Amino acid sequence: MTSIFDQLTARSGTAASDSGDAQTEKKSLDSASGEEAGRASGQAGGYTPRRVKDGVLELLKYGLLEEQRKPNLYRDLLAQREAIGAILEPLDLSMRVDEIRGIAFLVVADQAFERDEDEWLHPLVRRQRLNLEQSLLIAILRQQFVAHEQQAGVGSSEAVVSIDDLLPQLQLYLGELGSDAQEQKRLRNLLEHLKAHGIVSDVDEHDRIRIRPIIAHVANPENLQNLLRAFRDEAGRGRQAQAPSTEEGER
């Protein structure tokens, strides 16, 4: 026979057990909701896919990406334009794509120009300090590139030119140095500088370089044509000035 004390003790134990179960259940619910919140936070925090990161890093490192050299990454860039644009926008940068030539490249966003008159004050974009000789070579290479596209079609990636073909064109505007070795050295030094800007490839074992398609976007064609015209006029005046002195010497 149970006494009143036994009944009270039993009730107290049951209540304590119910309270413990309730607390355990509450902890489980809190833990589950915390995990769910963590997952939601991870998704809302904007986890960036690896392929998007790789594409942005490539653009920031080199300024451009060619389909011919990295086709898989190039396709990822095209498929993730919106995501890449969102990453570049706070940096006042944007990506442009020339799908015909198979090239994606980095440019300073238009909004940056609205705030600053000097487009080259952007801290992430290197100023292209090109002297007149380098600019002249770009104009010559662009002519070669345009001629190649007219013959092979826009988007053809094999715009190749030899050193021997470039030398006489450079001599036409800059004159001759009197030594083949010096003229070769001058041209190779100019090409080496342009290679750093992604405009040409290395000189291969056959003394040829590939004109890379970014040349279609690095300068205003009209400005390059005006530069060629100015060099041509200057070269013509130089030859005219030398002619009388030669005739006097003969006399």
Structure notes:
It contains 9 helices and 5 strands. It is mostly helical and 251 residues long. The protein has 2 domains: 50-121, Aspartate Aminotransferase, domain 1, CATH 3.90.1150; 132-240, Arc Repressor Mutant, subunit A (Orthogonal Bundle), CATH 1.10.10. A hairpin with a 4-residue loop joins β2 (93-98) and β3. The longest helix has 41 residues, at 4-44. InterPro entries: JetB. This is DUF4194 domain-containing protein. Residues 1-49 are annotated as: Disordered. It holds the Pfam family DUF4194.
Layout of helices and strands, plus pairs?
Blueprint: H1 4-44, H2 50-62, E1 64-66, H3 71-79, H4 81-88, E2 93-98, E3 103-108, H5 110-115, H6 132-152, E4 160-162, H7 163-174, H8 180-196, E5 208-210, H9 221-250
Helix pairs in contact: 2-3, 2-4, 6-7, 6-8, 6-9, 7-8
